Amino acid sequence: MNSIRALVPLADGFEEIEAITVIDILRRAGIEVVAAGLKEGEVVASRKTRHLADVSLDQVVHETFDAMILPGGQPGTNHLKSDPRIRECVLRHMRAGKWVAAICAAPIVLQELGILTGKQATSHPSVREQLSGAHYREERVVVDGKLVTSRSAGTAMEFAFKLVELLCGPQKVKEVNQGVLAQI
User: Fold this and answer.
1) 5-180 CATH pick, 3.40.50.720, 3.40.50.880, 3.40.190.10, 3.30.9.10
2) Which residues are tagged catalytic?
């Protein structure tokens, strides 16, 4: 049986709640989540918490996952946006028809790649003006085709559960939430 796999790249300055919540909820759903650091060793998040990724991005950059999920936060989003490995990986996942998701400021990575042109999307209000190609929505989580966007750290739980629903179905959401008790 093939397991469902998701890639979450971690750059220095990533938003803790957005990355860790997604990793946690997806793993509770039985999804194999690979947290990949843009560099070897410790990754320092936006609130100066220190994290160890499962692998370095170089170890998995050429793999295709069922989903690629970009956490926001600054300067993490800018690091993702400027990394050619991330750009190629996002484009490969889009071409392969896989799920691509971004939360908070991270949709600007997708905008720069032209992925949001003509798509419904959302983001943190602070980067809304940078999403000129998108049909901007203010919903907490927006799905358009295989693209999922969300607004901020405060929407991370809904974002994570929407990803579980899309990857595993609504029954898995119910199962996972029996232990979590989130308001979703």
Assistant:
1) 3.40.50.880
2) 104
- For residue 118, what are its two tokens? 């003509």
Q: Which of the four pLDDT bands, split at 50, 70 and 90, describes residue 145?
A: very high
Terminal Cα-to-Cα distance of the chain (whole angstroms): 30
Each residue of 28-73: pLDDT tens digit? 999 999 999 999 999 999 999 999 999 999 999 999 999 999 999 9
Structural domain boundaries of the chain? 5-180
Question: Per-residue b/e over 62-79, b at no fewer than 16 CB within 10 Å?
Answer: eeebbbbbbbbbbebbeb
CA distances from 183 to 25, 136, 164 (A): 14, 25, 15
Alpha helices, DSSP H, located in the chain = 16-28, 57-60, 76-82, 84-95, 107-112, 156-168, 170-180
Q: How many whole angstroms from its chain centre is CA 135? A: 19
pLDDT digits (tens, 9 = 90+) for 81-126: 999 999 999 999 999 999 999 999 999 999 999 999 999 999 999 9
